[in-house]
Design goal:
Blueprint lengths: L8 E8 L3 H11 L5 E4 L16 E2 L9 H17 L4 E2 L3 E7 L7 H11 L3 E3 L2 H4 L7 E7 L2 E3 L1 H15 L2 E3 L3 E8 L2 E8 L2 E2 L2 E8 L5 H7 L8 E11 L7 E6 L4 E6 L4 E6 L4 E6 L8 H7 L6 H11 L7 E12 L3 H4 L5 E3 L7 E5 L6 H7 L4 H8 L1
Parallel strand pairs: 1-2, 1-13, 2-9, 5-15, 13-21
Antiparallel strand pairs: 3-8, 4-8, 5-7, 6-7, 10-11, 11-12, 11-13, 14-17, 14-18, 14-19, 15-16, 16-17, 20-21
Bound molecules: flavin-adenine dinucleotide.
The site of flavin-adenine dinucleotide has 36 residues, from α1, β10, β14 and β19.
């Protein structure tokens, strides 16, 4: 069918990307009224980074080198737990261990940091301490941190989107954005062909795909760093079943409950990243394409071998599956491991905003930065 036979529809706001951030933002914008359309190129929402991650609801402990990220996590965790209680697993003992060598923090630094951000911390019980090799681990702490169930979160997002009246277009990819009058024109490829849209505002919430979409729209990239990551899913031996462990702070590992599959995830700072690169001008690597077209080979044996030096029982964990996803962060995160969100407005075009999520809980930092009446304001001025 010829392109011109597809009629252009109008919306107040278009949100591109049906991950947790895009869904939350679309429902938030819709609260101001008007037509809000959410585009997701896959056949369901929350199938990419919002599904394939460590499932940790951060409470600050993970960021002893970034006070701000630690403090924001302390503010956001209670909010997340309150809004998504049914998606949160708090049934396990969460443990942070400090490696005796090559750690960026000592146990004393960690204790001081937790006191500064007000995060509860106590010495782990003897039955938990005894699980660790004392030659490799300086101290073991019991903390308050949870995991989320990504499948339940997807269900919660569907309920929220339906209740708020957001129009969700699945299997639909936004290919390009251009200026049109006072607003924007989106070239959209739906399951049945082109679905052009005119919108007052558009939000690029595509995470690892932010820059490929900008590039297709003739807009220079935002400096971002990407890593292809492997999350090994494992069955842990009985003594580790009710425990989530993180060994800090450097080239170590986490073994966390992964509630949506009823197993644990094992990730290792050294072996989880299979490839990394930064976006710069010129040809951009399309992270989703790279992920889909490369036959990745699991590094689970390396993860398990190193992790078992610290937590010997892990030698008996069984590999169930490996999930691969691209992790995208701001280059500045490399300095202090901080995780601020990126929220930029009028990126290359008036009315086009880009959001880079950092972690699940700080979605509230994004919502606070987008006042609800914004849709109406732009509509009035149009
Ligand atoms: C390995 C790993 C471990 C992590 N661990 C944690 C953790 O323990 N705790 C935590 O809080 N955070 C963690 N994170 C970070 C967290 O997962 C992300 O910050 C968050 O999920 C990103 O949400 P999002 O909605 O921006 O991205 P996504 O969930 O990736 O959603 C973006 C969506 O955009 C869609 N899309 C892309 N291009 C287009 C287009 N042109 N048109 C239409 N749709 C498009 C994609 O298909 C995708 O569904 C981790 C991330 C990774 C990768």
């Amino acid at each position: 069918m010829h392109r011109s036979s597809f009629t252009t529809s109008r919306a107040d706001a278009a949100v591109i990307g049906g991950g947790f951030y895009g869904c939350m933002l679309a429902a938030h914008l819709r609260a101001a009224g008007g037509r809000v359309v959410l585009y997701e190129k896959h056949d369901d929402i929350l199938t990419r980074a919002s599904h394939t991650n460590q499932a940790r609801v951060h409470n600050g402990y993970h960021y002893p080198r970034s006070l701000l990220t630690g403090l924001r996590s302390r503010v956001n965790l209670p909010r997340f737990v309150q809004e998504f209680r049914d998606c949160v697993d708090s049934s396990f003992d969460k443990v942070y261990a400090i490696a005796a060598r090559h750690s960026h923090v000592t146990a004393r630094h960690f204790v001081n940091f937790c006191a500064r951000i007000g995060a509860p911390l106590r010495r782990a019980a003897p039955r938990i301490r005894e699980l660790f090799d004392p030659h490799h681990v300086e101290a073991v702490f019991a903390v308050e941190e949870f995991a989320f169930d990504a499948v339940r979160l997807r269900q919660a997002m569907w309920s929220r989107l339906r209740a708020s009246g957001v129009e969700v277009r699945l299997g639909t990819e936004v290919q390009r954005i251009a200026a049109e009058g006072d607003g924007l024109r989106l070239d959209v490829q739906g399951p049945d062909g082109p679905e052009p849209l005119s919108a007052s505002r558009a939000f690029n919430c595509t995470y690892s795909q932010i820059n490929p979409l900008l590039a297709r729209s003739g807009i220079p990239p935002i400096p971002l760093k990407h890593e292809v990551t492997e999350l090994a899913l494992v069955e842990v031996p009985e003594e580790l079943a009710g425990i989530g462990v993180t060994v800090m702070c450097g080239p170590f590992f986490s073994c966390m409950p992964f509630p949506s599959r009823g197993v644990h995830s094992l990730s290792h700072v050294r072996y989880t990243p299979h490839a990394s690169w930064r976006d710069s001008g010129g040809d951009l690597l399309d992270a989703h394409r790279l992920l889909a077209e490369t036959p990745w080979r699991s590094r689970f044996p390396l993860m398990r071998r190193d992790a078992a030096r610290y937590l010997p029982a892990l030698a008996d964990c069984r590999h169930v599956d490996s999930l691969y996803e691209v992790k995208t962060v701001l280059p500045a995160s490399e300095r202090d491991d901080g995780r601020p969100i990126l929220m930029e407005h009028d990126v290359g075009l008036p009315g086009l905003s880009c959001v880079l999520a950092a972690k699940i809980d700080n979605v509230f930092d994004m919502l606070d930065a987008v006042p609800v009446p914004a849709v109406h304001q732009r509509r009035r001025s149009a």
